[in-house]
Amino acid sequence: MESYLSIPHLLAVAGDEKIFGWVTPFVWYSAIKVLVAVGLMLTMVAYTVWVERRVSAFIQDRIGPNRVGIFGLLQPLADGVKSFLKEDFVPGHVRKVFFWIAPGIMLLPGLLSIAVIPFGSKLGEQDMVIANLNVGLLYTFGITSLSVYGIVLAGYASNSKYPFLGGIRASAQMISYEISMGLSVIPILLIVGDLNLGNIVAYQGGSLWGWFIFKAPLSFVIFAAAAFAETNRLPFDMPEAENELVAGYNVEYSSIKFALFFMGEYASMIAVSAMMATLFFGGWTLPFFGLDQPATTWLGGLLHIAIFLAKTCAWIFLMVWIRWMWPRFRFDQLMDLGWRRFIPLALANIVITAVVLWLKA
Known about the structure:
mainly alpha; 15 helices
């Protein structure tokens, strides 16, 4: 008996106009959304580096990159070419297989996490989300938690004391603050009753006071602090503290592998900023001029995408600004803040939210 999964059978099914007409546009539009989202993400990664260098120069009363292109706007392209052309030196004492794998693991979570984030309402008939998962929030937490494996693996593979200490710090830090981050969003789930990020955005439509920064301010504070810790940004950059560990987990890396670590850090920063915009600032909605409803025209759809990108970029700028304005915590302060402050506060926040909802029921 011929298998229903055989190639002739699949070709026969694909020849059916009804099925072929449904599958082809779906795959085509999904591929376009993936390519556009990844291309935009990588472009934002490159220019977030440029923004960071310009902002740090402004704060420190320097000029910053201004030679390659107008205002130095082509500097990211020059840096990318330089990364490919530099010698890719692999020290003889490293564990080579893991040494090569670690940079890729560091980059992937930031790219994969954007798959379920709604970056707009509709453009034509297409929903502006790559994968509209009913468990989108759990997916993002699961994917972003994988970035710690890249750092830990780099610390282990480098077979050197500074990278190893950086890897140990990263594992302790991320485990600690993942708990706080996960607990901080439970009040939002209790209020909305849904794990779908699109439904969370839709719930915040209607008025400015419907945004969760106003309805769940403590959740916002805990999530924001945990986001800095999860992305290894100052004041929580303990895995690569230059004055203590030289550069931590990436000491032994050079050329494009070194660049991949930084691309992974900035990709994670962009993904976290997009999550902040989605969970606490209404996502693509704006409570003016009817922009809190799904778009019915192409212009409305483009406006929603622009609103989402503006909110995300605002958070990226804030993360860059804080890096150059705040001092680094000591490691004992970092762990104390996570375990003795944020976790009890997050648990109390859950109980209070549940009691309020129960009294309203």
